[in-house]
Structure to design on (653 residues):
């Protein structure tokens, strides 16, 4: 066999196969035409006992690629990767054969068959090269307010050069001219391009990373009040901000007056507005002349002291009711009638009260335009950063671009402060190696087949696809590409392939 | 256990969820009927590849991706669903039963769901009768 592929079978007492079985599989493979040099049987590699010796052995044998078979389990990937690293073999040249002990027919036959297939598949995979690109030690911090200030100072403390901009398109502090952020030039430090022609400002300013932090500035209260007034033209339905004054100036009466505080009316409440509502409920309930109802969908109190405050408000006598879907508010005579479906009882309920205060949600994070041209994904509320656990806490779909604080939905100040630091540390984690390094296992485009329909450019979730003007075809960036193969699956011309999972390699496994 | 046909199920698994669920699956009888093929993401699945799998002699194909909004590559699982639907249409155009191709979203801990989907697919292609479908770990060892 022409290609130098080493097969490593890992065996131990119980799981994958016994020593005897492994030896038999190896014998079967050798009988099938492989040299005895190319099939190794090792014991308990995950235990680490023979690890160094094995790695040394692998290095001496000078394999081009390694096919690894061991216990089904997530440990296997790490073990194989470690071994290959120690033996000086690129990660992309390591293949796995997933062999289950259960199966039809004798295990040894099946395992040998699967290994032979996997070996054939691995032979189809090209040996990757390692490519590197330097990273600048400078960061562009976009945003205003405490969050951005904190992130900025933390980054400076960590030894990075920072430049601030309060908005996108960019206006760089201390650099005259209008810039726009261009992520596609170079490997991917974010570049601010533009500037005023002829002026002293540079045409391009490049950064190693971009951190969105901020939006902790003052919120547009007047705008929100106008929104509410248009929705409910009555002085009995108010924004939460004006409720306290109105409630305390209600004409004195014999009976206890009822006041409703409505949360989650427009969009899900944040911790900041929940805190505000709980504090208000407590204030109004305490004197004993008002009965407060707190209407919400799902109250979020998982924050510093917030739960204690919530409990205190309830202890003081405020009633918390949870509603589902829509809530109907109408003024009737001297008061307000609120109809809702109680989500805990599953029954319709009605509250008649003198005043209703509506929180129009505390989020003032109009991100529109800020992500312009950067290809950043938004979540369903239009905030930066997808609602996806793999990106938490600070990552976005673009490598090197991070987001923290209100722009990803946190506007509770103590949490926003913590996030600003976390965002700065995420940038540090990205920039501290000083360079980008990757193997060329990224999606490969066949220029002869590519018709430049740009389906891949649109479908790549990480915006790793771009047009290579020289080749006249699409091309993926080796550093941005995360080797998921979505483009390969989407390409209508079948011009894209993922080296490790090319058609030939997949066909060999079938 | 008596098997009525010798068909096999090709199971495309996402490395991040389906493969781990398969590792956690202890039902040997179910695993023995499955040829597990790993993918970096369920989004890598191609319509042509799905059809080719049938051509290669597999009686049924199942794709396992991550739960929605949980895809490591953000939108791979949604795209996999779209492409599976397209392949189903092609199957029915070719006069084959489109139900022999299925996609399911599971997390790495959902070994029971992995089992359940494969079991019902096995019933469909007559690998076992529903009454005697293997139900627990270790059952196959006796057989």
């Amino acid at each position: 066999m022409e290609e130098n592929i080493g097969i490593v079978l890992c065996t131990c007492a119980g799981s994958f196969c016994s020593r005897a079985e492994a030896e038999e599989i190896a014998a079967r493979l050798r009988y099938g035409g492989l040299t005895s040099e190319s099939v190794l049987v090792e014991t308990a590699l995950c235990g680490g006992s023979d690890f160094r010796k094995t790695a040394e052995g692998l290095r001496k044998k000078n394999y081009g690629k390694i096919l690894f078979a061991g216990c089904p389990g997530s440990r296997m990937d790490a073990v194989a990767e470690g071994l290959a690293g120690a033996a000086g073999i690129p990660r992309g040249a390591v293949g796995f054969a997933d062999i289950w002990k259960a199966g039809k027919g004798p295990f040894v036959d099946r395992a040998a068959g699967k290994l032979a297939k996997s070996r054939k598949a691995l032979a189809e995979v090209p040996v990757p090269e390692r490519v590197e690109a330097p990273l600048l030690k400078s960061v562009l911090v976009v945003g205003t307010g405490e969050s951005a200030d904190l992130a900025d100072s933390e980054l400076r403390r960590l030894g990075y050069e920072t430049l601030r901009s309060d908005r996108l398109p960019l206006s760089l502090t201390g650099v005259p001219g209008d810039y726009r952020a261009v992520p596609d030039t170079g490997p991917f430090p974010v570049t601010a391009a533009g500037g005023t022609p002829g002026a002293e400002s540079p045409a391009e300013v490049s950064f190693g990373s971009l951190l969105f932090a901020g939006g902790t500035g003052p919120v547009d209260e007047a705008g929100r009040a106008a929104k509410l007034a248009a929705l409910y033209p009555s002085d009995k339905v108010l924004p939460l901000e004006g409720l306290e004054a109105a409630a305390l100036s209600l004409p004195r009466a014999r009976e206890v007056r009822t006041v409703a505080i409505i949360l989650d009316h427009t969009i899900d409440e944040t911790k900041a507005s929940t805190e505000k509502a709980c504090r208000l409920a407590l204030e109004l309930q305490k004197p004993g002349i008002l009965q407060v109802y707190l209407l919400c969908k799902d109250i979020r109190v998982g924050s510093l002291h917030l739960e204690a405050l919530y409990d205190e408000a309830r202890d003081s006598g405020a009633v918390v009711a949870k509603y589902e879907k829509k809530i109907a508010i109408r003024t009737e005579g001297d008061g307000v009638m609120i109809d809702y479906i109680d989500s805990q009882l599953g029954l319709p309920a009605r509250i008649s009260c003198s005043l209703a205060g509506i929180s129009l949600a505390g989020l003032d994070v109009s991100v529109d335009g800020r992500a312009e041209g950067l290809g950043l994904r938004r979540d369903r509320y239009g905030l930066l950063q997808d609602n996806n656990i793999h990106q938490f806490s600070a990552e976005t779909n673009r490598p090197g671009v991070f987001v923290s604080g209100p722009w990803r939905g946190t506007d509770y100040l103590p949490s926003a402060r913590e996030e600003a630091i976390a965002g700065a540390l995420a940038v540090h984690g990205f920039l501290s190696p000083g360079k980008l390094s990757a193997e060329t296992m990224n999606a490969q485009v066949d220029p002869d087949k590519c018709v430049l329909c740009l389906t891949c450019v649109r479908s790549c979730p990480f915006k790793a696809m771009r047009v290579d003007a020289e080749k006249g075809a699409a091309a993926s960036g080796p550093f941005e590409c995360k080797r998921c193969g979505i483009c390969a699956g989407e390409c209508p011309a079948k011009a894209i392939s993922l080296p490790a999972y090319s058609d030939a390699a997949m066909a060999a496994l079938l | 256990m008596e098997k009525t046909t010798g068909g096999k199920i090709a199971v495309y698994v996402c490395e991040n969820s389906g493969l781990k669920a398969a590792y956690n699956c202890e039902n040997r009888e179910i695993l023995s009927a499955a040829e597990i093929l790993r993918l970096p993401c369920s989004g890598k699945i191609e319509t042509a590849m799905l059809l080719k799998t049938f051509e290669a002699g597999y009686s049924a194909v199942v794709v396992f991706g991550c739960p929605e909004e949980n895809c490591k590559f953000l939108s791979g699982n949604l795209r996999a669903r779209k492409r599976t639907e397209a392949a189903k249409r092609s199957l029915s155009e070719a006069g084959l039963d489109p139900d022999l191709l299925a996609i399911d979203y599971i997390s790495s801990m959902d070994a029971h769901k992995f089992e359940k989907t494969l079991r019902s697919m096995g019933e469909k292609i007559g690998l076992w009768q529903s009454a005697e479908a293997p139900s627990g770990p270790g059952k196959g060892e006796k057989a």
